[in-house]
Amino acid sequence: MSRSYLFKNLKDTAGKPLELAVSNGRFVKVDSASANFELIDGKGLTAIPGLVDLHTHLREPGKEDAETVLSGSTAAVAGGFTAISAMPNTSPIADTAGVVEQVFRLGRSHDLCDVFPIGAVTLGQQGKILSEMGAMHSSEAKVRIFSDDGHCVWDSLVMRRALEYVKAFDGVIAQHAQDPRLTHGSQMNEGEVSAALGLKGWPAAAEESIIARDLLLNEHVGSRLHICHLTTAGGVELVRWAKKRGIQVTAEVTPHHLLLTDELARSYDPVYKVNPPLRTERDVMALREGVVDGTIDVIATDHAPHPAEDKDCEWAAASFGMIGLETALSVSYKALVDSGLMKLGDLIERMSTAPARIGRYEGHGSLAIGNEANFTLVDIDATWRVETLGIRSKSKNSPYLGLELPVTVKSTYLRGKEVFSR
């Protein structure tokens, strides 16, 4: 039988007093709480809806040396997430109903957070033949978002057909905007730093040209287009233009692209090697502005774990990517709230409510009465130090090791069950 709780002395995101009552895994009216409810004193803590990540690499099946659904879920709840979206670049690729159902069932069996598989747009993520998107949507996993993330759907006709196909069931095509011809062999952002270091540059135009093309395609098709990990000032302007024009598009940015710049590559430390690359300070400021004014809808982690041997090597040989589930809230808070650009409530909307809405993840993104009790308690006044031993992810490739970050996640609840406590 599910336990019932009454959380007292909490604060909401505006700092106002808040009480939460939970029974049978859902939020209920506080005045309905009886003597049977277990009282929990949340003094000093702020209640937020569980965070929702639209961009997570869990690596299972096939790459369990980097991460598993279990280790990734453990990291997620430690970061305050109650729902994560598993990208399809596994082995085998998640381009069939069988693979997405495997990932979905693994998530359910661990029951730490909801794991929503993202299906591949094309078979083998090769960009040539559409995958079984309809079958994946009709499967037990009920896949709604599709992406070839790590690869761009570069063929215009294939992209158009994909947008048309998912329109039939309110699906989303999440594009990794990267022209492969302009980025072949690229190692970091193209600019002064890449020139100084002698590393092949990754031009902003490689991202922006694909975004522009896809916006125009979707203006014609009228489907749901989502731009993954936006990184350039020009990309922000394109999405802003499209929204004013009425084109149906949403966009995400990662916490690391809101805080870190390509200047860090001067260290030659591959922990800063990421796809898409860290950009300039000007780009970072434009991305922050895009989040604040709503041009960018979502902050997503692009949690990309790699075993030590894939990062403990020279820059050119190292894998792209960094982990981020456990630090996402803190880094985003530092970049946007500590800087005075936005309020906590608006940040949580970008990290919980909006991604839940885009993914159609029922039960997430709200503390409303009757909703599933998926929520997180945080101490916004407490800081914490990122240390290797404290990282729950199986991989440790974090760019924040040794840093003191704001906001500490104290506990995370999935359908009223405590799944993490610090």
Describe the structure.
- The chain is α/β, with parallel strands linked by helices.
- The chain has helices at residues 69-78, 97-110, 133-138, 156-167, 180-183, 192-197, 204-221, 233-245, 255-259, 281-293, 328-337, 344-359, and strands spanning 5-11, 17-23, 26-28, 38-41, 46-49, 51-56, 81-86, 114-117, 145-146, 172-175, 188-189, 201-202, 225-227, 249-253, 298-299, 375-385, 404-414, 417-421.
- The strands form five sheets. A five-stranded parallel sheet has the order 9-10-13-14-15.
- α4 (156-167) crosses α7, α7 (204-221) packs parallel to α8 (233-245) and α8 runs parallel beside α10 (281-293).
- The model has no long low-confidence stretch (mean pLDDT 98).
Describe the secondary structure blueprint for this structure.
Elements: E1 5-11, E2 17-23, E3 26-28, E4 38-41, E5 46-49, E6 51-56, H1 69-78, E7 81-86, H2 97-110, E8 114-117, H3 133-138, E9 145-146, H4 156-167, E10 172-175, H5 180-183, E11 188-189, H6 192-197, E12 201-202, H7 204-221, E13 225-227, H8 233-245, E14 249-253, H9 255-259, H10 281-293, E15 298-299, H11 328-337, H12 344-359, E16 375-385, E17 404-414, E18 417-421
Parallel strand pairs: 1-4, 6-7, 7-8, 9-10, 10-13, 11-12, 13-14, 14-15
Antiparallel strand pairs: 1-2, 2-3, 5-16, 16-17, 17-18
